[in-house]
Amino acid sequence: MTTPRSAATLAVLAGLAAAVVRRARTVAAVAPELRQPDLWLPLSIGSPLELRLGRRLFGARVTEPVAGVRVTRSDVPGGQDVFVYEPAERTGGALLWVHGGGTVLGRPEGDHELASRVARDLGIVVVSARYRLAPEHPFPAALDDLAAALRDLHARAGDLGVDPARIAVGGASAGGGLAAALAQRATDEGVPVAFQLLVYPMLDDRTVLRPGTSARGRLVWTPRSNRWAWTAYLGHPPRADEPRPYAVPARRLDLSGLPPAWIGVGDLDLFHDEDVAYARRLQAAGVPAELHVEPGMYHAAELELQTTVASMRAFRQRLVDALGAAVRSRAA
Predict the structure, then answer these.
(1) In angstroms, rounded to a whole number, what is the distance separating the alpha carbons of residues 46 and 56?
(2) What whole-number distance in Å separates Cα of residue 65 and Cα of residue 71?
(3) Could you tell me if 97 and 128 are in contact, meaning their C-beta atoms sit under 8 angstroms apart?
(4) DSSP character string of 149-179
């Protein structure tokens, strides 16, 4: 005889079994070499408590710089602090790098290894900027901090051995979206930007408003996290209209005159569709834009796997090569 309690238990077990089956299908879509045990965990950010936990577990991540690069920290007038990575031999180019984290977590210390490696391998100066995080500091706080960092980099170009005509901006995830917004603002304000390096960038809040029927975006950065982060950054939930310039890069109507771009994204990434659309719009506007879509890759997969998995090493090398071609001198 089935009691109400046993029926409830059976219902819970059936729900769990169904969830496991759905997760198995999701993980099965990932390229075999990218399948990691933590992909089975349904992690997301959708509340202040989860944000606090995320900041403690992931936002405090620190990596070590590679050897052969001088690393210094300096304050930016009108902004936050930055880390400056100077290689022993330089070619005159520079990159202003923006860390990821959904605009709600993360810090530049987490990208010490990446920033210093790019500086060393390309012989360019890399500046990795801190910016104020949402929801405590919604738009335009982060963008204002990055605009100040870009102006400061131009002001210090001579001392750093940088050609002001070969300064790029770039970032990953939310950092890529902020870099795209910064490129738009800099273009309008007459601040030179030579190139935009957009690594699976967070570009369009309207992704939140679209039906979530796709198999994309079920790993690492989910629709739930995306909705919460955009709401925190904009100061309101995503909606049909958002008139503020630079708040959402993909909402800009005229993309002509923007710097050349490289955009890379995995085909399982929640940002796939918005990134592909932005690349196509750049191309249609006459902006040189290279798009790379990595098969079987989920959001930010290369962060932990670029040293051990060949496809992720190749993905990382693609973005480095694109940056190098854009900002190194021809003699280099």
Answers:
(1) 15
(2) 8
(3) yes
(4) HHHHHHHTHHHHT--GGGEEEEEETHHHHHH
CB-based contact 204:197 (threshold 8 Å): no
Judged by average pLDDT, the poorest of 98-107, 211-220, 320-329 is 211-220
The edge-to-edge listing of strands for the beta sheet with 289-294 is 69-75, 81-87, 125-129, 94-98, 167-172, 195-199, 261-266, 289-294
Which residues, at least 6 apart from 282, have a Cβ–Cβ distance to it below 8 Å? 255, 258, 261, 289
Known catalytic residues? 173, 269, 299
As a whole number of Å, the end-to-end CA separation of the chain is 80
Contact 139, 234 (CB under 8 A): yes
Q: How does 285-301 read in b/e, with b if 16+ C-beta sit within 10 Å?
A: eebebbbbebebbbbbb
Please tell me the distance from the alpha carbon of residue 143 to that of residue 129, in angstroms, as a whole number.
11
Q: In the structure encoding, which two tokens stand for residue 328, read together?
A: 């190194």
Of residues 190, 270, 175, 192, the one with CA closest to residue 225: 270
User: Is the distance from CB of 201 to CB of 263 less than 8 angstroms?
Assistant: yes
Convert the pLDDT of each residue in 200-250 to its tens digit: 999 999 999 988 656 788 888 999 999 999 999 999 999 999 999 999 999
In the three-class reduction of DSSP (H, G, I as helix; E, B as strand; rest coil), residue 273 is classed as: helix
Peptide bond into 48 cis (omega under 30): no
The per-residue DSSP string of 5-70 comes to: HHHHHHHHHHHHHHHHHHHHHHHHTS-GGG--GGGGS-----SHHHHHHHIIIIIT---PPPTTEE
Residues 289 and 261 sit within 8 Å (Cβ to Cβ): yes
Closest CA to 205 of 237, 173, 172: 237
- Alpha-carbon span 91 to 106, nearest angstrom: 30
**64 phi, psi to nearest 5 deg:** -100, 140
- Give 185-195 pLDDT, tens digit per residue: 999 999 999 99
